[in-house]
User: Fold this.
Amino acid sequence: MLGLGGKSVLVTGAGGGIGRALVAAFLAEGAAVIGADREAALMEGLDLSHRLTFELTDSVDTQAAIADHIDAHGAPDVLVSNAGFTRAETLNAVDVATFESEIAINLTGAYAVTRPVVEAMAARGSGSIVFVSSVNGLMHFGNPAYSAAKAGLIAYARAIAVERGETGVRANVVCPGSVRTPAWDHRLEKNPQLLDKVLPHYPLGRMVTPQEVANAVLFFASDLSSGITGTVLAVDAGLMAGNMRFFNEVLRAET
Assistant:
């Protein structure tokens, strides 16, 4: 039904929590998955057709790794730009070096991966790009440098949609809210009660799972979304629908 059987899919950040769910989801649909991450060891245990390693902060090395793969194997049918990283959670934690580093990883690095793939897809006449951005790119929830980069991904996806649509290339964006991956472990170790403060903001009362993010990516990658490009989809347990905590603590409390 999804039309992904036999397709080739390049997933960046393949060894992370969302990345591993993406790999499993595409494999389940019969696709061949090319994994990319900063170290080969991060992709251990994954059933990948190829493994690419590069550091996203090194745009020259990144573009070279992607170009070499395309020269040898052709452009993938789908690119999922998933890799990302942040630790600077407030403006007080951001200086110029931190800002430049997070932009380099989350935006410039994604561009370095995507540009050669898009041009090869355009030359072929088909392709789907899916960016994993964040609700931080839609509204401020902290992590200001990361948020700026993730908002940039949305603008970049729209540029691809408008300027490369006539060549058969689509670009869409998935914006997860809080996803229960190992990235949360360091926070929960510091504050085991943190979820008691986080979950009341979500109408579904929980975080989304990596598999739920992967399901949205599958849709954008597949033939089911063949008429959709330049679109942003929040996968966020309802976070962007409204201020749940305000509703519960102010409005519902009065009734």
